[in-house]
Structures
1.
Amino acid sequence: MSYIDNIIAIIEKKDAGQPEFIQAAKEVLESLRIIVDQDSIYEKSGLLERLVEPERAIIFRVPWVDDAGKVQVNRGFRVQYNSAIGPYKGGLRFHPSVNISIIKFLGFEQTFKNSLTGLPMGGGKGGSDFDPKGKSDNEVMRFCQSFMTELYRHIGPDTDVPAGDIGVGGREIGFMYGQYKKIVNRFEGVLTGKGIGWGGSLARTEATGYGLIYIVEEYLKKIGDGFKGKTVAISGGGNVAIFAAQKVMSLGATVVSMSDSNGSIYHKAGLNLDTMKDIKIINRDRISKYADIHKDAVYTDVSKGRVWDIPCDIALPCATQNELLIDDAKKLVSNGCKIVGEGANMPTAMDATEYFLSKGVAFFPGKAANAGGVATSGLEMSQNSARLSWSFEEVDAKLNKIMANIFHSIDSAAKEYGKPGNFVLGANIAGFKKVAKAMMDQGVV
Ligand code: NDP
């Protein structure tokens, strides 16, 4: 049995109840065969056994009192995956689906993503099965305070710097930061995605969506093309989806879809982003409302159709894991889709990814394509350490450069290892090499 097959067998046995983690780990490990099979040093130093095992995983109780005075209890997580190249860094997700498998998959992916940014950040992820949807601001605040009352002892500006993710935006980061500061009595850069008046970075809110467009733009430039006149299908209606739409529209593309967990909107004439922002950001409402306002738009309930059923040149899955399956991939390709960029983490199932690659679709995996968020979090950390604030334009220009660099590094790695145009392989190898070298340099720890 090869070294990689042995590692896959180990995780399939040890982590049998963690399908998302196994899926993410397998996808990376498959890409690494080409490196690991050539050099026995990896096996001798147990590099992969160490890589797939988080340095630390913390699970904790989060009790809080709802508006009716009843005590509620949620489960909190922080997985500190790998600190070989810097302090743990990665978001917090508040969603009822959160469990140890999902947090481990996200933390594992984050390790390679952070490496690709070129910034000194290790990988981590956390969150809770708490659902902020339908809760009052006071309930969200009490939950966030209770969550931070445990989390604070595990994090710090040089140890672990969490950020937002699904269900965690500016409001939640604010409540958590307030509680952290009250407990430790220090104003320091322990979270990113903070408000602009209290340590946040301009352009952090837009960064993941903008970064997704910048990496695809760099590819389009390379093939002598651009976004002008392209039709773009986007899934999700949150932070990543909205700012990806904003940037790609500004570059001349037409965005025709967006979705939430209940259903999707198809607006052939082009989505009105102001309406969408009012519904999803300001009113925290359901996306179906959009079709009440724009009568030429069609709303399809999730039980009746998929967001990927429509014709487009470019598809940007920006909602959640495993939201683009093999049948969706076939539909997209038969409808003329040529580029897929993952704004979300692991939105595409493995067989669907393979299908895209086999059909010559330019496929940008999340660990490269959505790295703009964490990269800008890294820039927020730099500003906090230097006690400086850069302008929107300065941060945006740095983000653009980081995404262009990521494109060139995954493109080069794909070529170097004999699979030109396979950005999945390129991203996994380029991300892995830096982390692996740091782990080797630092000995068996
Ligand atoms: P938000 O909470 O802002 O938005 C998430 C969106 O996805 C919502 O529209 C939500 O719909 C939808 N969604 C969630 N679960 C499902 C589901 N099971 N099926 C269909 N739709 C669903 O999150 P973000 O935009 O921040 O994150 C989206 C993705 O991007 C995630 O995978 C996240 O890990 C990834 N990401 C985010 C980064 C960031 O900076 N925010 C950075 C890098 C990656 P509903 O309103 O119905 O819940």
2.
Amino acid sequence: MTSVTEIVSLLQLDGPQLDDLYQQADKVCRKHFGNNVHLRGVIEFSNYCHRNCNYCGIRAKSKNVKRYRMTAEEILAVCRKMEKQNMTTVVLQSGEDPYYTREVMGRIISAIKKETDLAVTLSVGERGLATYRYWQKMGMDRYLLRFETANRKLFRECHPDDDFIKRIKCLKALQKLGVQTGSGFLIGLPGETMEQLARDILYCTDLKLEMIGAGPFIPSELTPFGKAVNSFPKDIYFKTIAILRLLNPLAHIPATTAFDAISPRGRELVLKRGANVFMPNTTPLEYRKHYQLYPGKPCLNESADQCAVCVVKRLGAIGKKPGRGPGHAISGKPA
Ligand code: 5AD
Ligand code: FES
């Protein structure tokens, strides 16, 4: 059992000991995944959101955002292309948009399953057990829902219209259904201490997740947290991923997009320090610029085709290659 104190001391490593931490994380990653990096194409299919998370650029009250929704046919067209581009999973991500009801979303999932061999991951926020069950029946393989912070007070400060317990209930419901479940957190939220980060890492590990996504908090100008500062030094983000890998050897851990926003070649760096998944943006260009949760998002002007070519090059440059097969969980179901 690892303690908060132990994690904090790992987060404070530097010099040769830090190099050693990164090397160990990479070694564990290679042991289970070799040189393979699973590619999951993300479609940000709607930027409507009825919530008001204080850090997020597409929160309901953001008046400066041009809202869009993609049709089922538009989503399918992207999926058909994806298969030719080394991607074996589609991640359907949106704000919490009630327009995509249980049935509407269900039809999209089953159409993708019928027409392609893609694994289908959803990332559309908090819904009820019955809805998750229905989507699973329609073919949904996986679900992503970050808990964002394990500190109840900080969670309330970040999410004026949401509740930590409800969020965790959603995660538990998904796990009970046997949907491969991913969660994770933001690193460096306003007021977050190193001890809290350590607790988030441990909380995340305790959830026994099949997928773990964590990335730096990046202040987004026109949000209530627009003037906040992320007070952690950059290497804390990388250390977090390396520690998560050591504690969760079999989990799929993406090099999240936010790493590119804080550091040139940030996603490559994190793939060398424990991450094993890359999520190329496959949102059509006309929409992409309107899905800005935070500034500095990469690939805003590259088409899905360009990203697909680019990603293979980026992987090659660090001695990795696109993984084959659907990239399902190898961790088995949570105990
Ligand atoms: N900085 C970094 N990540 C953010 N997200 C939302 N807003 C920001 C921000 N300002 C992340 C959240 C969410 C995921 C889809 O994007 O963690 O779960
Ligand atoms: Fe999008 Fe390189 S991954 S341009």
